[in-house]
Specification:
globular, mainly alpha, three-stranded mixed β-sheet, Four Helix Bundle (Hemerythrin (Met), subunit A), 3 strands, about 5% strand
Length: about 160
């Protein structure tokens, strides 16, 4: 597999990965916070769902528009004001998986040169479609590790 094909496959598998690491999490485990200021499994899953919606918009803008402006979002404000602590985990996982799958279907058949198209992120500056793909493939993987860590900490706290 080429590096690009591998990256696209990592992106595609993100939905499956998140579903697997969240499997079996329920009740108090979903809301366990390893320390003040750190997110619970529920909050991480809601963040993934919402950030995937933001990313889907960015992918589409870079593909369809000439040098679009890509606006940053305040993830902590979203977590607070969109009540991540009350949202349904199943809905967040499904939203993430569905949005990721829909974006993958758009990306998988694009000509290679399309991935050099750019948008202008209001905080990061120029960002190519390839950069977005790489960032979002890693985003799911990073949060999957984070979910695993929180779940391990929860289990350790119960064993004491």
């Amino acid at each position: 597999m080429t590096d690009f094909a591998d990256l696209l496959e990592r992106f595609r598998r993100g939905g499956e990965l998140i579903a697997v690491v969240a499997t079996g999490a329920a009740g108090p485990e979903l809301d366990y916070m390893p320390e003040p200021g750190k997110w619970s499994v529920r909050q991480i899953l809601c963040h993934l769902a919402d950030s995937e919606l933001v990313a889907a918009d960015r992918f589409r803008r870079v593909i369809a528009e000439e040098n679009p402006t890509l606006i940053a979002f305040d993830q902590d404000a979203w977590a607070s004001k969109l009540d991540y602590h009350k949202r349904k985990v199943s809905a967040a996982i499904e939203s993430f998986r569905r949005t990721r799958a829909e974006t993958y279907e758009i990306l998988k058949d694009l000509p290679a040169e399309t991935f050099s198209r750019q948008g202008n992120h209001n905080e990061r500056g120029p960002v190519s479609l390839y950069d977005l793909l790489k960032m979002m493939a890693g985003h799911a993987e990073s949060h999957a590790r984070q979910i695993q860590g929180v779940r391990q900490q929860y289990k350790a706290s119960k064993a004491k």
